[in-house]
Amino acid sequence: MLAEARPFIPYAPKPLAKPAGRLKTLWLLARNPLESWTQAHFEQPMLAGPSSLFGYTVVVNDPQAVRRVLVDNVANYERDPLQLRILRTGSTGGEGLFTATGESWRRTRRTLSPLFTPKRVAAFAPMMQRLAQARVDRWLRRRPGAILEIDREMTGVTYDILSATLFSDAIAGDSAGFERAMMQFLDAIGTIDPLDVFNAPSWLPRVSAIRARESLAFFNKTTERMVKERQAQIADGGEAPDDLLTALLRASDPETGVGLSTEDVIANLLTFIVAGHETTSRALAWTLYLLSRSPHWRTKAEAEADAASENPGDWLDEMPVIRAVFEESMRLYPPAATLTRQAQEADRLGDVEVPKGAFMIISPYLLHRHRLLWERPDTFLPERFLPEAREKIDRFAYLPFGGGQRVCIGMRFAMMEAIIVLATILRQARLSLVEGQEPRPLQRITLRPDKRLAMHIHPR
Ligand code: HEM
Predict the structure, then answer these.
(1) Are 395 and 417 a contacting pair, CB within 8 Å?
(2) Residue 265: which domain range?
(3) How do residues 59-111 score in pLDDT, each as one tens digit?
(4) Ligand 1 within 6 A of 308 CB?
(5) What is the pTM of this model?
(6) What's the CA-to-centroid distance between 169 and ligand 1, angstroms?
(7) What is the CATH number of the domain that holds 137?
(8) How many structural domains is the chain composed of?
(9) Does the beta carbon of 98 sit less than 6 angstroms from any atom of ligand 1?
(10) 303 vs 321: CA distance, rounded Å
């Protein structure tokens, strides 16, 4: 495939020449954690030492070492207390898969894995395509050249898809309020609270938790009602919709036969929403932005979308170009920009000693732009992910979905959804960025654009 003459290099924050002091780091973390990385973070395989904020910290950029943390010695690296404190904000007692640890995680993962098999995920494809098409139809009713806020549109379409696949739109009349509450909640927990960084006692109220409380209360109440209604429907022997909620209520641990408690069903529904919604919508918005800046790849992607087969369940395997474009977008803008763990015992990663209790940072953002791992790391080059080239990428150098036993359970769901939404758009519409609106990446709970992504829509 012919390479692009002048590939696009999007804006990226300039790394610091040397580490910032304690106060400035705290300020940068609150403003945009991406701005706190130094040149060395993009150039060295490992950085370890006491940090001014997080105690002994190891930043792991060497794929071999990443593999040891996520796979070979995974038992030694649990989710860290800071992450758990942030993500458990407002928990109602149940434990979702994301925040579960130890045996409780193993049990939940065994129970939920059958919900995400390729076959089950493919069954959602026609609905994903229908909902994407409905949105594109709405766009095409606007005058040619009209401006859309594409980030909002992607939030909308991924929300439509998630609510249809999770609970068959059972939120009924509360739908708009539910979506708003979800957005407020994600916004509130998306900023790192200094009290969490300093490990302040949990009874000290966090600003983020106060902001999240109201939306979360509404959110929990609505979810609880839906779960109770569905339980009653199943108990009555009625025909229950074939969605993830019914699957969660019927799921049981293949080893013990034990199902989930009502609290755990609620917690996992909320987990799927929090983990699955914003991640996918951001990745889609960044992809549409990059395509609008790369006519070369847009043309190729359009041609592939035009040749799509009848069955959207096959698109994931049929569309290597759109898939490569999407994967390259997640390389430059990984929605989950930082993964963290805590060392339970001392360990050794290559030459680096890891003391017990060390705070481990594996940052897809750093890894994906690391000078030792990628050629032209800041340039948009989807050819890296075309089938033959992709095989040469180290599994632990590219981690948009994490890796090892805690790899994203929704990976296939998200990939299928993304390819379907992109192909549906590309077949009929062309989007171009409004001049002067170049977005910059901002790390909140996901990696998002710092401003609305305003784009002109033209029918093809
Ligand atoms: C582009 C979209 C997505 C991205 C980039 C993404 C990314 C990730 C990453 C990086 C992790 C691992 C975190 C870690 O190791 O610390 C993860 C875990 C997880 N994701 Fe996703 N995700 C996406 C979509 C989804 C979807 C659609 C769902 C559910 C419907 C989902 C549910 C989860 C859950 C439940 C976990 C926790 C798994 C466990 O700890 O066993 N994600 N995701």
Answers:
(1) no
(2) 96-336+403-459
(3) 999 999 999 999 999 999 999 877 776 666 555 667 889 889 999 999 999 99
(4) no
(5) 0.94
(6) 22
(7) 1.10.630.10
(8) 1
(9) yes
(10) 10
